[in-house]
Amino acid sequence: MRADHKRGVLIEDGDRSTPTTGASAPFLRPRTRAGHVGATVGLALCCAALAACTTSRTSDTPTTVTVEVILTGLQNPRGIALDTQGGLLVAEAGSGNDPIDSRQRSGRLTRFIDGNGDGDFTDPGETEPWFEHLASYNARGHLEHRLDEVSGPSDVTLHGDARVFLSVDGGFDEFALLEISPERSMGRNLSARSNMTGLGLTLDERSIFATESMLNQLIEVSLEEGDRRDVVAFSTLDSGQEAVPAGLAVDPRNGDVLVALFSGGASADDGSFIPFVLGDAKVVRVDPLTGRIVDEIVGLTTAVDVAIDDLGNVFVVELAADQGELFATTADLHDPDAIPQHGGYLRFTGKVTMYPADGGPPRILAEGLDAPTNITFGDDGALYVSTGQGTPGRPIPGPDGPTVIVGEVIRITGF
Description:
Layout: E1 10-11, E2 38-42, E3 54-55, E4 63-64, E5 66-75, E6 77-82, E7 88-92, E8 107-112, E9 127-134, E10 137-138, E11 150-151, E12 153-158, E13 164-169, E14 175-180, E15 186-189, E16 196-201, E17 207-212, E18 217-222, E19 228-233, E20 245-250, E21 257-261, E22 266-267, E23 273-274, E24 281-286, E25 293-300, E26 303-308, E27 314-318, E28 350-355, E29 363-369, E30 374-377, E31 383-387, E32 395-398, E33 401-404, E34 407-413
Antiparallel strand pairs: 1-25, 2-5, 3-4, 5-34, 6-7, 7-8, 8-9, 10-11, 12-13, 13-14, 14-15, 16-17, 17-18, 18-19, 20-21, 21-24, 22-23, 24-25, 26-27, 27-28, 28-29, 30-31, 31-34, 32-33
């Protein structure tokens, strides 16, 4: 349980705790959740100081955090996995174009490697396309809401035997948890029941956990037999909206699963759509053997992913701090001359926070991020975060005036 947030409450048999802080309102009828960003691959030449604050791996030795952009111009970057050669496997949800011709799909999985050690990924041979033309769609074409949410390849994780597992959300009839061989051959689809926004291997790497956000469930899939087991179904949150499990992390100390509950949208008493309720999101700890749930961190807003290191420090990504204006139902998201709009989530208000294992106060490692979605803790001790969610190139309000959505990967060090 974490300082500055309420102590966790054990939840069993479908019951849930009733927090004593956080926003609450008479909202009803929840909806489901989000998607993400991009444009074309390149490396940011500047190491932008997006955030500089004093923080530390524990709560008593302050250091200076460095936040730098290492990839830019991506199309909705999501899950990131680091291989043993220092390469970055990046899943991109694409542009959300949802074409009839599958050859024009824009979702992809790419490996980036700094082959010559010069700090960038722009030299010949440093970008390796693994799979292209994967599913990509915008939820506006499938759901009756006014948000800009792109879905496609969602998360990626790397097995110790060099197999890669990739989840893909292609819409309500096209879901996949794909097994990719070390030779880069596409193999089994291990689960096709729902979208899977977060993946994580069990400690013995014999199974894989996945969050099914549309079904509000955590599942475990055996990598040997391919059997799927429902671990737990998440109850509604504080204001009656769906939990919407998003990212997950496996605790390396004991095998528990930490799950970020994003919080679904709701309808107010007047029937208007509320994308999310401030303070209702949280991170929960799940015992995968018993299905018991404990609140780990509460009072969050749009908690979209979580990571944990060997010491037990927890890192949480919040996509946005508040709501932004919704689109008109007739809005053209691909109009480069459109009036800049937030599109449901207040742009450039995302953040990454560390919750020290020793119970010290939370430390903001990076803030002012544009719609961050995924976080990975690398073997190099750095955090890798995907940012920028929505239609690539769409005009949005920026901190210094109008700008456009750009998909990027940032690296956080020095904490």
